[in-house]
Structures are given as structure tokens and as C-alpha cells.
Specification:
Elements lengths: L1 H4 L5 H18 L4 H9 L16 H4 L11 E2 L3 E2 H10 L4 E5 L7 E6 H14 L8 E3 L14 E2 L10 E3 L4 H11 L3 E6 L2 E7 H11 L11
Parallel strand pairs: 1-3, 5-6, 7-8
Antiparallel strand pairs: 2-5, 3-4, 8-9
Length: 220
Amino acid sequence: MFELTGGVRYIVPLMAAAMASKWVGDALGRQGIYDAHIALNGYPFLDSKDEFQHTTLAADVMQPKRNETLAVITQDSMTVDDIETLLKETEHNGYPVVVSKENQYLVGFVLRRDLNLALANARRIIDGITGQSLVIFTSAQPVQNLGPSPLKLKKILDMAPITVTDQTPMETVVDMFRKLGLRQTLVTHNGRLLGVITKKDVLRHVKQMDNEDPNTVLFN
């Protein structure tokens, strides 16, 4: 700007002002303005510059904890009413799909928005779909019965979701969240679904490992 305007008389005052503002900024904190806005707005952000060097495992962080149930969808035994009730009672962004309540081998993962849209379109477009219609996430033909027509939703099912085992080190899990941009990962043991780890769970765990209060992490 000085070269363009030729106003060399203001070089020294502006240099002094820039240095003073730099010293004041460093005294108040070295966090950048964008990092500060991320914290103020409560965005779940994992900084790639921070290192995670603790020895915890995925089983220590996953949800749900012991004596709690995980919200899942079965591949061929839940009705439209059952799934709509699950959507109303929970606020998850997605749901694991398992073989059955007793045999919780992982089949895939379905997003909440895709599920809502598919159910709404089915009720509006497809004839014979009622609240008692079975929702099928497999390509196998369902057993014929006298009930309403089943609703096949395999096309919205992610059959290859990102998974880790319960013995995976959290250092690896955190690295996966940073590099792959994950919102959640499923935790399994020999193919059986155990739980889910979300980015918010990871951030709370990082705070806890750094001897900070995990409840200070606010998500808007």
C-alpha cells in the first residue's frame, strides 16, 4: 500500500501499530480467530495438529455403555410403524442394521434422512404400504403371508460402513476420524455389533484424557 500511494510518512506509525497489536494478541492467546469461532459455535472439529498418545481402546469410548441398549434396525422383522416410532424416540443421524435382535451380526448402516424420505415416499406412492408392512433390507424374497405388502429398502442401505473392532486403539480411531472425515464408526467383535463411536464421543474422550471436563465441549 505504501508503494502504491507513496505515503511514506505513515510507515513508522503503522509498523508500531502492527507490532503492538501482535504483542497484545499473543498476550491474550495464540489461538487463531477461526479456531476461536469453531469453539464458540460448538462445531465438532478434530484438529490434525493435535496428537493423541493415550492407550485407550475403542471399547472404552463406544456407546452405549454397559446395561444400555443400542438403537438398531433388524433386516426383515420390523414394521413401518416400528421404524417410525424409533425415529421419533431417538435423534441419531443413522442406525445400524442387524440380522435380528438376538443375532446382532452387522448387515449395514442406514442414514436417518434416507429412512425418513423412503418411508414418506412409500406411503405416498406405493399402493398397499401400511403401518404393518414389513421393512426389508435384504434381496431375499419374504415369506408370503396374508398381511400387507412389504417395503424393500435395500437400495438405501450402506452395506460397507466403516467399522473397527473393540480392541482397536483410540489413536487409530482418532486418526481415522481426522483423515476420512467420519461422523461415526461402528464397533464390532467377530462380526457382532457392539456399539457406535461418533465424532462427539471422540472429542469428549480427548478432553477427558487431557484431564479436562468433557462437559465443556458444547455442540450446537
